[in-house]
Each structure stands twice: as structure tokens, then as C-alpha cells.
Design goal:
By secondary structure, the protein is an alpha/beta fold. The chain is built from 16 helices and 17 strands. A four-stranded parallel beta sheet has the order 4-3-11-12, sandwiched between helices. It has a four-stranded antiparallel beta sheet with strand order 7-8-9-10. It has a three-stranded mixed beta sheet with strand order 14-13-15. It is elongated, with a radius of gyration of 27 Å.
Length: 495
């Protein structure tokens, strides 16, 4: 674990040397999905981003407890504590039990994440399963004087918190004094003392289905309380990494810091990590904007926009999506286009083909190319705030070497071939989480069958049975397999 991993801390706005609070143990909390609809590309990005963080920390030898919640209650339509609970609204529209809706979309989310080769977290707590912990948290904040009860609902007192700590806005950079200087609504039109105050507990209206008893009313928790309560329960009052999308910095993560500080005097974690957004024509992709494409639609290649125009030119496999996301640094925006995804598909296919070619290379007594520096280069990239695009660029360089050796224009010794195989296995497959979709788990079977077919074709050529030789080649081509004849026999690759 002796390494110099740098992580960009959103709180300090600079890269910091990663030093866990209780090495070798690492606690990581990531905000998961609100399960009221199918997962889209915007959900895939944080899942893949923190999957790579999880994989790399484990690779370095840390014992990681990765907690990623599922929000199945308390997230209202609008972040300003207004509107219906998103899942309850979906349940009402579809005439289902809210938990039926949550379970259905949680199952679909998991299926999509499995397809993307995203590892399951260590713990995946449900907000609805931790109502008691959230009620206890709200009571602690009330006891410390940073919340108030209004008409059965409980609100966090942002003004008092800011006067005492001057910390509200420390993560997002929001100038809270300007927010608090707005006109106070004291005429009974609002339950809040200030518009900046946020709900810790909401009194349920008569038609609200999801409700629990509390000291203040029959109601449900506010959106922000769940992560503070569950993060504390499973990782302690202070843990190492808190992650999520950049769109959660305000109000969600800012409110988490306020809640935890109100109770303990400090924020929940040492390092805040935020992935940037996926955009379409420069606009954030998301359910609320109605411009999202679900992951299933990407996999099937079928999606029409609100005007009925087909958005996808073709289906895109899960590994193409994963490769597309990893080709950009997690803190940079990624703009969706068919052209960008098609380029990602070609890049991913090229690396998978290079690995297949590598396994078939014949070693020489010595190497005419140097491959010894790549392991260190890959570590340097990962240690520089998980710079996956740089790692991928190194593999493109290695692919060039592999193809050059395959074309008999360079040589590699057996130790260097083994080293390159190890680099693919370690960085591309284990850490970046890519896998060869063309062969899946049947690599040996497919290789064996193809070799048998090529042997039959070689025998036909030896017998000058050109008709059979050509027929085999043409039939394979129709199935998407390209056969290349060379000095040392035929090789194959998937188109």
C-alpha cells in the first residue's frame, strides 16, 4: 500500500495525498439512485467512476467498506422541499405500492450495473430501512438548537448554523449570506423561518402513502437526512471518502455537512469526490430535464426524443458505454453523441483485439521494443486522481507494439509478453473493469472452435480445394469474423 495516491478534494479544491483515517481500512460512501425510473447514462457515470476508485483502492491492498445507498423515500420532486415524493408519485400514477415501484426499478438498476461490470458495494442500505436512525439524527440536531418544529415538520435552521460556524456553502461555494438576506416569510405563507432552511422531517399530507410515526408528526424524512444517518451507522462519524455527482454538491452534500457538523462539530468525511456531468448538446442529461436516454435504450439502440426523432444510430454494448465514460477524466464533462460512442466502440474493440493477438504471439529470444516502463506509467496515471484516460492511452501504445510484433516488424521475448499480459489483466480488466464482450466467459471454447475451423480450412488449402477454403472464409465473414492469411497461417478477429 506504499503509494502516493492523489485525490482531488472538492472541499479544499486541490489534490491531496490520500491518507486513510484508519489504514488499512477505508470507508467510502457514495450517493446511489432514487429508484423511480430506469437508470440512464447520468447514473452510469458515478457508478463507474466510484467502481474504479473501489477497485483501485482494493488493488492497493486497502480493506474497503463501500456503502452506496438506495433512495426509496423522502426525495421530493423539487429539492426545495416541495411537491410529491418521487416514488410515491410514480406509485400513484401506476396504481402500485410505492415499495413495488422501488423494488422494480432497483432490480432494473442492478441488472444495468451488472451489465456495465460495476461491482456491488459492500453495503447497499435503503432509506426506508433506516427511519429510526433518521428520526434519532433529527432529534440530535433539535437538541443542539440547529432545527425547529413547524406545523409537524422539522427544518434545519441555516441562519443559526451559519452564525455559529460560518460553514454553510463551504463545499459548493454558495454565498449563503446573500441567500439569507432575502425577504423572510413571516406571514404564515411558509412553514420555514428562511427560504434557505431545509426539511429534516416532513409532516405527511392525508393522501401521502409513505408515512411513519415520529415525535413531531406522522410523516417521512427529508432527502438529506438519509445519507448522514446511514453514513454514520455504517462508516462512523468521520470516514474517508464521500462521493457522488457534481449536481449533488448543492443542496444535498452541503446539507449533509451541515447536519453532521451540527451534531459532531465536523463534517462527515476527509475527502469529497465529485464526478462531472454527462451532457447532450451542452445541457445536463437527467430525468428532470426529459433529455435522458436509458441504459436499456443504449443497449437496444432504440430511443426517440420528444419530437419523435431517433437519437441512437445503433445499439451500444455495456463495455462501449463503460469505455466511453472512462476515456474522459471523471472530473471533466462528457458530451454525448453517436460519433463519440462509435469512436469509443472502435477504441474498445481495438484493445480487445490487441489482447487476443498478444495471447497468440510467438516469443523471440529477445525484445526489440521496450515495454518495461508501462507498469510505472499506469500507476502514475491512477495515482494522479484516477486518470483513466491516460491509462487507456498507454494501452493504445501497447496495442501498436503488439500489432507491430504480429506483423514481424519487431520482437518480444516471453518475459515481455507475459508482462504485457499482466498489464492488461491488472489495469484494463481488474482496475478499469473492462472485459471482452466478444467472447465473454467462453474465451477458451471460442478460441478452440475457431482454431478447429481454421485447421479444416488450412487442410482444404493444402489439398488445393479452393472452393471449400473460400466457402469457410465467406461464411465466417457473414458471421462477423474476419480471417487473415499470413506467413505463419491464418488468424481471425471479430469485426
Amino acid at each position: 500500500m506504499e503509494q502516493n495516491l492523489l485525490i482531488y478534494n472538492t472541499l479544499s479544491r486541490q489534490k491531496e495525498l490520500f491518507r486513510p483515517l484508519n489504514a488499512p481500512h477505508v470507508g467510502m460512501y457514495v450517493c446511489g439512485p432514487t429508484v423511480y425510473g430506469d437508470g440512464h447514462l447520468g447514473h452510469a457515470r458515478p457508478a463507474i467512476t466510484f467502481d474504479v476508485v473501489f477497485r483501485y483502492l482494493r488493488h492497493l491492498g486497502y480493506k474497503v467498506r463501500y456503502v452506496r445507498n438506495i433512495t426509496d423515500v423522502g426525495h421530493l420532486e423539487h429539492d426545495a422541499d416541495e411537491g410529491e415524493d418521487k416514488i410515491a408519485k410514480k406509485a400513484r400514477l401506476e396504481q402500485l405500492e410505492p415499495m413495488e415501484v422501488a423494488q422494480y426499478y432497483a432490480n432494473r438498476y442492478h441488472a444495468a450495473m451488472d451489465a456495465l461490470n460495476v461491482l456491488r458495494p459492500s453495503i447497499e442500505p435503503l432509506a426506508s430501512g433506516h427511519i429510526i436512525e433518521q428520526i434519532e439524527l433529527v432529534q440530535k440536531i433539535l437538541d443542539r438548537g440547529y432545527a425547529y418544529v413547524s406545523n409537524g415538520s422539522v427544518y434545519f435552521d441555516v441562519r443559526k448554523y451559519q452564525e455559529d460556524t460560518h460553514r454553510y456553502g463551504c463545499l459548493s461555494g454558495r454565498v449563503i449570506d446573500e441567500m439569507l438576506s432575502t425577504t423572510r416569510e413571516l406571514d404564515g405563507q411558509s412553514e420555514k423561518r428562511d427560504t434557505a432552511d431545509f426539511a429534516l422531517w416532513k409532516k405527511a399530507s392525508p393522501e401521502h402513502i409513505m408515512r411513519w410515526n415520529s415525535p413531531w408528526s406522522v410523516g417521512f424524512p427529508g432527502w438529506h437526512t438519509e445519507c448522514t444517518a446511514m453514513g454514520t451507522k455504517y462508516l462512523g462519524e468521520t470516514f474517508d471518502i464521500h462521493g457522488g455527482g457534481m449536481d449533488l454538491m448543492f443542496p444535498h452534500h452541503e446539507s449533509e455537512i451541515a447536519q453532521q457538523t451540527a451534531v459532531t462539530g465536523h463534517g462527515p468525511c476527509k475527502y469529497w469526490m465529485h464526478n462531472n456531468m454527462i451532457t447532450i448538446n451542452g445541457q445536463k442529461m437527467g430525468k428532470s430535464l426529459g433529455n435522458f436516454i436509458t441504459l436499456d435504450e443504449f443497449f437496444t439502440g432504440s430511443h426517440k426524443d420528444k419530437d419523435g426523432k431517433e437519437m441512437l444510430q445503433q445499439p451500444y454494448t455495456p463495455m462501449t458505454i463503460r469505455f466511453f465514460i472512462l476515456q474522459a477524466h471523471y472530473r471533466s464533462t462528457v458530451d454525448f453523441s453517436n460519433e463519440a460512442l462509435q469512436a469509443a466502440e472502435k477504441g474498445y474493440t481495438r484493445l480487445m483485439q490487441a489482447y487476443k493477438t498478444l495471447k497468440g504471439l510467438q516469443p523471440s529470444a529477445s525484445s526489440s521494443v521496450d515495454v518495461k516502463g508501462y507498469r510505472q506509467k499506469c500507476y502514475e496515471a491512477m495515482n494522479d486522481d484516477f486518470n483513466t484516460p491516460i491509462v487507456i492511452s498507454h494501452f493504445f501504445d501497447m496495442a501498436k507494439i503488439i500489432n507491430t510484433v504480429n506483423d514481424k516488424k519487431a520482437t518480444l521475448s516471453q518475459p515481455d509478453i507475459d508482462e504485457m499480459k499482466s498489464l492488461f489483466d491488472t489495469f484494463l480488466f481488474d482496475i478499469l473493469g473492462l472485459k471482452d464482450e466478444a467472447t465473454g466467459d467462453n474465451t477458451q471454447l471460442l478460441d478452440g472452435l475457431m482454431q478447429m475451423v481454421l485447421d479444416v480450412r488450412a487442410q482444404a488449402k493444402a489439398n488445393k480445394d479452393w472452393a471449400t477454403s473460400d466457402k469457410i472464409r465467406d461464411r465466417l465473414s457473414a458471421l462477423g469474423v474476419t480471417v487473415k492469411d499470413g506467413k505463419d497461417g491464418a488468424t481471425w478477429e471479430l469485426k
